[in-house]
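Lab notebook, bench 4. Still working through the backlog of constructs that have no structural model yet. Next entry is a single chain of 535 residues. Request: give me the structure tokens for it.
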Amino acid sequence: MAAVADLIVCRLRDAGVACVFGMPGGGGNLDLIDAAGRAGLPFVLTSTETAGALAAMAQAEITGRPGACLTTLGPGAASVVNGVACASLDRAPVIVFTDSYPAGAESVFAHQRLDHRALFAPITKWSATLAPDTIVETLDRALDAALGPPPGPVHLDWPNDLVAVGTVAPGSDGVIFLTDSDPTPTPKGDPQFDALVSRSRKPLLLVGLGARRSADAAAIRALCERRGVPAMVTYKAKGVVPDDHPLFAGIFTNAVIEQALIDESDLLIGVGLDPVELIPRAWTREQPIVYCGPWRVEAGHIPFAAQLVTDVPAAVQRIETMLRASDWTADHVRQTVKEQRRRVSVSADGLTSQRVVEIAADRLAPLARVTVDAGAHMFPATLLWPVAEPNGMLISNGLSTMGFALPAAIGAALVDRERPVVALIGDGGLLMCAAELLTAARERLRVIVIVFSDASLSLIEVKQQQKAYRPEGVALGAIGWPALAGSLGVTAFCATNDAQLERAVEQALASAGPCLIEARIDRSNYGRMLRAVRG
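Model written out:
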């Protein structure tokens, strides 16, 4: 008779789970925490269930293995939904454990009773209830579902009377993982794909979240260099082609600022490009676009003329055999990207978000991973912070949820405690997850939180201005960020100009634990910056 919790922990460790995050209840997840402690699998208490899911998601993106989080039944399950939805739309494999009543008790007790499987059905790939006779089969299916293309979250309900498992299904002790060593899937392409690629003279790669493995990045960079093809990357694909690469063509979001190079191309090739990443506005590109990547994507938003469904290195190799040397020049690509960066650097009287990103990146980008929250600061962060490796920048793009950057930084810092992680977050976003500063302090993580402090929901305020509305419901009020951070055990600094920010960055970098830098921002340039980026 094997204890359920011990078996689950063994399976999670074999699958490559690095930590289990969350806020426990009084049911089966107490058994899981105890078993994890005995097995050396860390459990990390977060202040909210959502943060636990986001931290697990960050680890999944970095490692390529599942992340894991747990919650209690009822309110815990309801609270974790935002983090699970983020993992769903950002294609991250996360296993979510929830406590539940014993089998049959749901029909008796109304207290804290929610239909968990119905709650999670729209935002998970699979949901199940653990049972003694099928525990191994259920775990293996959950792991396969989470990792299978496209990756995503799965949910497992844990009845609080589930104690031991007496049988193990024959042949169910092996888990199938999609790793770099897996056989290349059989291509499921379209003859039109080959025809369009072979005719192209100025193709442009649009690299997305489905092409972030190290092998993917190596293949894509080699194609760029051998055929002289430039590549744009989505937010989540930052670093697949480094920002300083001669053929790095900027960020692709379906915005106006990218238009110049796209207009010059005669074929767009989406490599791992998932439409979930793009701004929801009409597709107006006139040249054809094709797709290649590990899973088939919807063609309702982007009118893909053909799709090649296969492993990214295999797809790139096939493309390279058909392409001639392109008509692009690296110097022209570099100058166009330089102009994009100039356009986003809009001046203001005080310290701007652009200057904060430039100053922090100049010192920290070569050393640190960076996480980026949703908000107005996101535009300079994604355009101006250089990244040299896949998943060197973590961002919520499919869901674009506020409150992502700090929990993600915690998850990332626990993967590699020696490497600093910088969280770029607005004051509105930090208010949503500020209690996780305590989590970072408790774990003594090398997390540097840079809060863009302007006392407003600035991006929403800009949208009000565009509609000629009054700025109602967006003022946050004064927040003593250093005092708040200090009360939670986090060293804090405040900067109102370049020199103060430079000193704060150096002091934070020298610290052994988490730090917060409040950068007091002049937000008056945000409207002009947004027009430059999105039109």
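Notes after review: Residues 346-534 form a domain with the Rossmann fold fold (CATH 3.40.50.970). DSSP finds 21 helices and 20 strands in the chain. Flag for follow-up if needed.
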